[in-house]
Amino acid sequence: MTASADSKTSGRILISVDAMGGDLGPATVVAGISVSAKKNDRIGFILHGPEDVLKPLVAKRKHLAGRCEIRNAGDVVQMEDKPSQALRQGKDTSMWSALESVRNGEASVCVSCGNTGALMLMSVIRLRKLPGIYRPAIAVLWPSQNPQRHNIMLDGGADIRADAKDLMQYALMGTSYARNGFGLERPRVGLLNVGTEEHKGRAELREAYDLIEGNARNGDFEFVGFVEGRDLPGTVCDVIVTDGFTGNVALKTGEGTAKLIRDLLKEAFAHTPLSRLASILALTSLRRMGKRIDPSRANGGVFLGLNGTVVKSHGSADATGISAAVKLAFELADTGFTEKLAARVASATMLEQDAANEPDSNGEQA
Amino acid sequence: MTASADSKTSGRILISVDAMGGDLGPATVVAGISVSAKKNDRIGFILHGPEDVLKPLVAKRKHLAGRCEIRNAGDVVQMEDKPSQALRQGKDTSMWSALESVRNGEASVCVSCGNTGALMLMSVIRLRKLPGIYRPAIAVLWPSQNPQRHNIMLDGGADIRADAKDLMQYALMGTSYARNGFGLERPRVGLLNVGTEEHKGRAELREAYDLIEGNARNGDFEFVGFVEGRDLPGTVCDVIVTDGFTGNVALKTGEGTAKLIRDLLKEAFAHTPLSRLASILALTSLRRMGKRIDPSRANGGVFLGLNGTVVKSHGSADATGISAAVKLAFELADTGFTEKLAARVASATMLEQDAANEPDSNGEQA
């Protein structure tokens, strides 16, 4: 009996996992999914990569027994491959194979820690965009003091452009994600800009503002209006919408700032014998905080707007990071996220077509 | 004898200071300039604001005796004023008066902690752009591990747009600032983008890349090419060039991230009696680190590209922050920064005109 059939009979939800392409290699990926398997009895895996490499790794993990089917794929997309190149040579790669399991309906979510650009392009080509979606987006997580501990920002870098309509769709997609991934009933959405005063910002953002506001009721979210960079890790909203260029710069600025502070903190604590003693006493506190801002715990950029959901884990993810990405993938699959998102987008598209088909109105029509 | 004449005979460099508009009021500004006066015998001040308010404040500071001339200006630009509104009603404000001292040549640098948008607009209208400059820029400082402890980013938000030529001028202006403000002989310049791979980024950035590269020799800087958000607080370059929209989002993202970490650190240390004890022992270390990333120490966005230099201090700057801004203003004035910058820009503009006047070349000309 295959793991797949076994999982179906046991009611397990299957996650398709690309075992290759992460900086730490397949052993780390297998260790990560084993952690998830131990914690959650309802997960099963389809694991993609060279069978001769994966089989002994899986055999060593008792929690994976009967819950992890291996699909042989001999090639690996390298981190330095250009997306177009990876696509041309990609049919025998673990990444391609992992997406194939979502494409053919065996799994609804795929997890990979490989090359982001290649994964995005391959996802768009193989899974295709949802009807009505112009630009798919990468939704990333920011540590925050909100009760759910993370805010969602999109686009984190799938596409360097986004017009007003794309930004509106990002708001809908981000809201669906917040609802299904974090259990927020009515997420608060903000549109990233340089200032909250009305005289600031780009013209297309004003247009996006109106579009997002107009879809708030139908999309079942609260629109808080323009927000600033400081609100990405803030508490005024749960979902922040921006184009992929700005989003990617912001994301990496946040990472760089966190790294600088970590380095300076280390230096500060190494400065005198007393401060070294203090650092030993403070270790638990520092670790506790470290957990909150560790990107490997908030692991997983999620590709939205496709026929299927792809969770992109950090290239440098360790077993904990992989396990966090699998957990997110499971929650999205379990809540029927892909289908719900498709329905939301379809409903917004219909609204828009209705509006376009209506005769010019001065508000006199019912 | 006026302070101005006194300063001239004593060889002092005059800084024009807007005493009003900061969140903490004129007493804090006077305290700040007094700190600077005590530290540096070569600084004199022209202080702008309501005479009846400023006179007693200045009289209390012995280091300001004979070194601080007061210029009466009854009105204050408020933080919530729109720039256009501030400009219309602004002739009697301390901000207008402070810029006037630069306009008429009494001082070459002005310091204000008032409303940024109003200060920028008023500066452009009153001081006028340098010949050849299309868009002035705000240069801001990022804490970094570079030897000078800060990187320079521009534009921090003067203008939400910037084309390739503007970005090239930002590179020249940022380089002049790094040389005169931080003593870097041959600053390293990076162009902010979403990735270092050649297939990424906007088309106009590719054009800017070529323009900046072409001016590196004449501008006496090293061009390191595209950099990412994480390099803003990093060590690969000293000057980072970007448009004002992206720059402002990045700046506020950095501030927001630093604030989140500070808050989480406080929480982590308050968690148990042991961690509270550790935090007491660690206090000096934490303070030492806090100083490194405290925006009030890296105080002063600098407006570049005008006939005169304007240092914009944080609205919430305390006396230490004001004093840091004055120190920067003094260094820029002392090195003849405004004049040197103008010469650099003029030289780049001439190069460009020469190139435009040359016949089409296949590299055959000498």
Automatic annotation (TrEMBL), chains A, B:
GO terms for cellular component: cytoplasm. It catalyses: a fatty acyl-[ACP] + phosphate = an acyl phosphate + holo-[ACP]. PANTHER family: FATTY ACID/PHOSPHOLIPID SYNTHESIS PROTEIN PLSX, PHOSPHATE ACYLTRANSFERASE. Belongs to the PlsX family. Its EC number is 2.3.1.274. NCBIfam families: plsX. It is an enzyme of class 2 (transferase). The gene is plsX. Catalyzes the reversible formation of acyl-phosphate (acyl-PO(4)) from acyl-[acyl-carrier-protein] (acyl-ACP). This enzyme utilizes acyl-ACP as fatty acyl donor, but not acyl-CoA. This is Phosphate acyltransferase. Gene3D superfamilies: Isopropylmalate Dehydrogenase. Its main location: cytoplasm. Signal peptide: none annotated. Keywords: Acyltransferase, Cytoplasm, Lipid biosynthesis, Lipid metabolism, Phospholipid biosynthesis, Phospholipid metabolism, Transferase. Homodimer. Probably interacts with PlsY. Pathway: Lipid metabolism; phospholipid metabolism. GO terms for molecular function: phosphate:acyl-[acyl carrier protein] acyltransferase activity. It is found in: Cytoplasm. GO terms for biological process: fatty acid biosynthetic process; phospholipid biosynthetic process.
